[in-house]
Amino acid sequence: MFPHYPNHPIHRHMETKTSEALRLLREMLQREHMDAIVIPSCDPHGSEYVSEYWKAREHFSGFTGSAGTLVVLAEKAALWTDSRYYLQAESELHGSGIELMKTGLAGTPDLVHWLKSEVRSGGIVNLPGSLFSISDCQAATAVLKEQKIDFRDGLIDDCWPGRPAKPESKAFAYGEEYSGKSATEKINTLREQMSRMGIDTLLLSHLDEIGWLCNIRGNEIRHTPVISGYIIVEKSRVRLHLTPSSHKGNAALETHLENQGIELRDYDDFGADIAGLEKRRILLDKDRDNYAIFKTVAEKNRVFFGRSPVAMAKAIRNTTEIRNVRKAMEKDGRALVRFWKWMEAALDHGEPLSELSVAEKLREFREKESGFREESFESIVGYGAHGAIVHYRSTEASNAEIKKGNLLLIDSGGQYAEGTTDITRTFALGDVGEEARHDYTLVLKGLIALSSAYFPAGSSGSQIDLLAKQYLWKEGKSYGHGTGHGVGHFLCVHEGPQNISPKGSYGFRAGMVTSNEPGYYLEGRYGIRHENLTLTRLVTEESEDKEFAPEHPIASSNVPFLRFETLTLCPFDVNGIEFALLTEAECDWLNRYHRMVMRRLGPLLEEREAEWLRHKTLPINRKGICDEQ
């Protein structure tokens, strides 16, 4: 995140802070006669975004990205992270003595085998089972046991003075006017699924699944309206374990849960409650549930591994949720149009703009919308070279001036009562040059290809991922992040089980909301990403995007085919397009999309705003912007 200025005061401050944290950590290892400690990014619920209390990896490494795993030994330390964070991690780890391991690159050792080569035979590794999945712990154990390496848990508190307190916040009921179904209805359906699976007990630890099943939300994690908890679902009993601060004296919540037949228990009672389970047929997700839960129940019960049926049910939007998410998109689109109009005027008048001031202004426009709760993640505003850092976060030290002559990438989103949004637009500020326009257009062609696709129901994300990458690949270019991720309903901005990537194995079904976001990043120059959220629909189904009513013969096929209905409502900046690179069909898609944006947002805007939007959505052809009709 910080620019490559090794002598910058903020770098020196971070190096000093990280050095002291590592010193205390290594003292603990020596005191406890341990050889290494492994520190991931998550909490016991496998959350991507966590409260300050669980940011141990950030505290001990100085790396602030949302994904990464730190390993510390007496004389060495290394951090594994993926391609989204290579540039950021290189900068933030500078001077720390922590080696960066770039996951996904040829020659990068995997964490477990690296650990095996560095730890002595008979050594001890601190591997917290509550913070790692069952599959990860079992795989690590299988490899490290080969040289008789033993494991231990915990002990972070001993070397983290001033560790932030665990979060305290009130949970609240999420009304059926937004959710579309009562918790009772969801639980009854879940029990039917469990019965068909031959399961009598389901343990849930993922906060989005808990919030969805019980129709509750919270605000203890920034940007993510979830509440910490666990659930035990049995044939005739549901036990919900929440932190005392979330439910004590919270009469409205208690009434809601009681009416849904949900028994309220304290968070810290979960361990004892699952330890008391015997002779049960329990379902756990091997890749998502933590090892500590498995270890507690495995001895007295029969454990089955599989995808949680709640994760699958949650991904399929009901009609109420679909209606609401469209409302959220209209509110978000109006805020984005007003923001863009403001930014364009500010640049034309020579007003000073920076990455931080632009991010703050965008938030202000969203805050004016009814039902807005907070941003769905910290806005990524990257000008020029900063746009090439995939998950860049501007700081006072890196805050770049925004001016004409380069690309500006803004990835942002909102949490509204009606739903969660996530959008990226890349703005061409003035004359950005032929190369930038060329790359901008290649990425746009990929988005259009995926937006236009028809595919059989059940197709996986890996099967359709190449549609978005094909035009970049033809020129030897690509991007390292996924093309699309699932999005929650007033929940997490990143949710599964579906995704569009080479690893996307889950079959798409009608009702899923997924991002479509190809990109391209030229280090030191600029970054490009175009992103819309989409709703998976049957091609034969009528929908709100009337401009895209299927006319293809496949609509009458006996085989169920799917398509993506675009939900996001905001124009693309046509000033970045190399028009001759587009086909007539691609021009037609963009014109239809812009007509939909104008039709949906125009009536929601003031007259001058609507006129501005009309100019931004003028039709194009392969020669450029068409004359006004």
Characterization of this structure:
This protein is α+β, with helices and mostly antiparallel strands and 629 residues long. It has three domains: 9-159, Creatinase/prolidase N-terminal domain (Creatine Amidinohydrolase, Chain A, domain 1), CATH 3.40.350.10; 173-315, 3-Layer(aba) Sandwich (Creatine Amidinohydrolase, Chain A, domain 1), CATH 3.40.350; 319-620, Creatine Amidinohydrolase (Alpha-Beta Complex), CATH 3.90.230.10. The chain has 19 helices and 32 strands. The chain has a six-stranded mixed sheet, with helices on both faces. Helix 4 (111-118) packs parallel to helix 5 (134-144), helix 14 (319-348) crosses helix 15 (355-367) and helix 16 packs antiparallel against helix 17 (461-473). The chain is globular, with a radius of gyration of 25 Å. It starts with 8 loop residues before the first helix and ends with a strand.
